[in-house]
Amino acid sequence: MMSTIYRTLDVGQQEIRLLRLHPSKSFDDVIQCSLFYAFLDDLPEYEALSYVWGPLEFGQGISVNKEPFKITENLECALRHLRHATVDRIVWVDAICINQTDIAERNHQVTLMKKIYSRCTRDLAWLGPNPGSSRVEFGENGNQGDYDAVSNGCSKLLQNGMRVFRGMCQHDAETLDRMQRRWKTRRRAPAGGQNETPHWILSYDDQDALMYLFRQAPLWSRIWVMQELSCASRVRLIAGTETLDWEDVALFLGDDNKPYADAFHVTGGHQSLLGAVVSIFGLVQTIQQQRRIMKDVDEGKYESKLMDVLARFQYADARDPRDVIYGLLGLVSESHPIKVDYGKPARDLFTDTTKFFIDSKSNLDIICQNPWVVPRQVDEEGAEVLRSWVVEFTNDRRFALFEGGLESLLFAQRGIFSAGSSTCVVPCEVSQDGLLSTRGVILDTLGPVLQGDFQGLRLDRYPRKWMQLYFDKEQLDDGRSAVYTPTGEPLFRAFSRTLVMDCKSYPMQRLSPEDIEADEKIFRILAQSDTIEDSPQSELTSFYMFWRTLDNWVFAMSKTGLLLMVSKEAQEDDVLAILDGGKVPCLLRPFHEKDELRYRMIHSVYIHGYMDGKAATEVEQGQLQKQEFLLA
């Protein structure tokens, strides 16, 4: 079937196919379209479609060049809605315009994606309905009625969200008055004078609709869409018959409009109020940031780095794991060795990409401060698919960046710590069996990781619980506190600084002497009793670091008494190491294989007193010895 529709593209002339979507006055008529060929340097006006494929079930029949052609349910629904009544519509659609069965063609066309979307008159971002995706909600247990109910419910949310946003964006008096009454009721405030700063609280229904529109719709999970939306000069969001131009979203979130946008609030857990911009528009802001970057790149004002692009969009998903890299290459302007090759296994692509980051940066940030910390994939026999030093770029924690994740250690603030030397030897040495050779020092080994009974325990009770597990009361007594040798400060002060990794946020920065003194007093109150009625934790300068750190890390001690914050995967006898080119220490797990000592990279680790170059000083003084590490 496909061979009669497609002819070979002229690669040298950067030839592509475009789809002519023929009109119909009847919404229910069979979709009729035809393919034609054009060169990138001589294109007619066309639009490009961004959408979610959904389940790979090609059961929907359309006509292409007067021949039957099967597509997914989501695409069929989008084309049916986008079809004009009386005139053709020229669109670029990946599933039809690329011969998906031809790997060589796919490899080549993927390299043209940036140009295809940059040169279209408009990107049509199809948010829904997505009937195929709705089936995923039920698996094999649903029926058509269930699928239709989910699809219709999602469509209603999208269209309601567009109407609510339009009211906010256009300063609609009725919309704003309703939201302001909610604010005054919440604050129990009388009607203010003309000088009162306006605030607006979204209703739960409005909040849900906007959340689905700008964050939860399947479109936002697709890695390719991030590139498509970032490159297109104009974007139109489409939900059935409702549309919203990206320009309106950008203006709403723009710096000139910031006081207005920041005045909108949503209701969070325990009836707390949260800023709507961060809670709802965080993902859209990220895309808008990339759109600005692409403009600066085109004007020669900025170089877009591969690491920054991959980290920025790490929340997005891809059906093919290789696409988490291939799908974003069009956003990168720096020189790099990554070539689109669907014949290359994902493990080799991830290895090559990790090695490129090490060699291009001359450091181990990508390993020691890895922002893609996810459960490692294992094969049928339980063996890890990737070497422990290779980054697993796929991410099954969608939107963690906007929900308090960031389990990796301050990746976005790579200059805060300087535990190891600033550089490592490059090009890095990787053996034929995938071992990365590095150098560094071993500080100590991890002692028992005492968990205790933390089930149901509030976070502000954790410090006291850890004190009971690890210390005698006299060691932390206010008047007779033991001294923490690496820093020479009282042990309790060192303990309290360790719990927040010696940082405050936001923006992320180190604690000042005044911060340390003030927070120590509050930590002493938290340590005094298990039954504090009015917890002073919110008064901590380091409050946000406190709850974020304790939610993702655990306190522990080394065999010689070093104070640590470690990942939950840590085990007794893991090695505490500082590697050349690593700004933060790391936790390594030693094992013997082929008669040699090897190490698995487990996670970054906070070691109080050793985050600012102390290890290098001890090497110079002969207290520590540099050695080679083979990371498996």
TrEMBL record:
Specify the domain of life of the species encoding this protein: Eukaryota
InterPro entries associated with the record: HET, HetReg/Transcr_Mod
Against Pfam families, the record matches this protein to: HET
**What is the name attached to this protein's record?**
Heterokaryon incompatibility domain-containing protein
Ranges where the Heterokaryon incompatibility domain occurs: 46-228
